[in-house]
Amino acid sequence: MGLRIGIAGVTGAVGQEALHLLEAGSLPIDEIRLFASARSAGRVFPFRHQVVRVEEIRGERLAGLDYVLLSAGSSVSRQYAPVAAKAGVVVIDNSSAFRMTDEVPLVVPEVNAKALNRHSGIIANPNCTAAILSVAVWPLHQAAVVERIVVATYQAASGAGAKALSELDAQVRQYAAGETIRRKVFPEQIAFNVFSHNTPVDESGFNEEEIKVAQEIRKIFGEPKLGVCATCIRVPVFRAHSEAIVLETRRKLSAEEAREILRHAPGVTVVDDRKANRFPTPLDAAGKREVLVGRLREDPSHPRALALFVSGDQLLKGAAWNAIQILERLAAG
Q1: Active site residues per annotation
Q2: Among 26, 89, 180, 248, whose CB has the most other CB atoms within 10 angstroms?
Q3: Alpha-carbon gap, residue 15 to 52, rounded angstroms
Q4: Is residue 238 a contact partner of residue 123, using CB atoms and an 8 Å limit?
């Protein structure tokens, strides 16, 4: 018997990726229903030789589905996820609404798929930066026990949604034409510029994104005392985030041992050619489901530290593909 699946927020960047992944995938789907806000209701999208009309999201319309992917923002998730779960629908939520809720598992399948066994109707998809980081770091943590993570991120416009992607494109065109560069989505010019992540900064000096990364990595790894220090930066890249990571481990891990571990790690592609000076780039990572890992080297300033660089598609492993992986695991029983 086929599955009944819904996608809420289907007109957004993540929702579109989820729709394309389901269409190209092998899950047996008897019914797919697409949801968005009232202004997007009525739009149509092709799916496996049929045309599906977008409906305005309402609680009663989610009832009867087996699974729903929620990618419409935290406020929508808080409103509809509990309603759907109460009706027997399993919700895979891509917002931050439930990530740190104790009874809601926060899952990256390559790391903690077993957490799916204890869900109560809602499963949280991690922050994109945390998801990409965890795929690269978890195999090394298993081998040598990571005690501290220092990470600087280079986050693409895609992390702020479809409107942010359009703004980067528009600003590049405005710059090339010698026109005034206009800002609507980001507080700073994104074209040919980098700036601190556009989330509020608390009294500690860390912004919301940096705090999310630290909290979520600890929950995903099951390591509440893990040291994490993040600096999150927006860069003029369309899609795929990159991260410069330094790990301090309990046991010394050589660059060669780490490289060999990562070569066999699920969801990882090692791109680490020193002679050719070829390492991960967001352009190479865009459109790929795997996280690219390279620049592996031992930190000479610390006896047990390792540096690496990763790039991962924010819309795929950082969002839609991670959610589909969760769905596939659940559907397989």
Answers
A1: 128, 241
A2: 89
A3: 14
A4: no
Q: Which pairing describes strands 44-47 and 241-249: parallel, antiparallel, or unpaired?
A: unpaired
**223-256 residue pLDDT tens:** 999 999 999 999 999 999 999 999 999 999 999 9
- Exposed / middle / buried, residue 75 (Cβ in 10 Å: 0-12, 13-18, 19+): exposed
3-state secondary structure of 106: strand
Q: Which fold has domain 3-126+319-332?
A: Rossmann fold (3.40.50)
Q: Is the entire prediction scored with pTM above 0.70?
A: yes
Give how far Cα 76 sits from Cα of 8, 37, 59, Å: 9, 10, 11
Q: From 3.30.360.10, 3.30.70.20, 3.40.190.10, 1.10.275.10, which CATH number describes the 130-314 domain?
A: 3.30.360.10
CB 167 within 8 A of CB 279: no
Three-state secondary structure call for residue 283: helix
Render pLDDT for 306-328 as a digit per residue (tens, 0 to 9): 999 999 999 999 999 999 999 99
Radius of gyration for the alpha carbons in the chain, expressed in angstroms and rounded: 20
**HSE, side-chain direction, 13 A CA sphere, residue 214:** 18
* The residue count for the chain: 333
The one-letter code for the residue type at 89 is V
Measured between alpha carbons, how far is 206 from 304 in angstroms, rounded to an integer? 26
Residue 226 CA neighbour count, 13 Å, CB half:
25
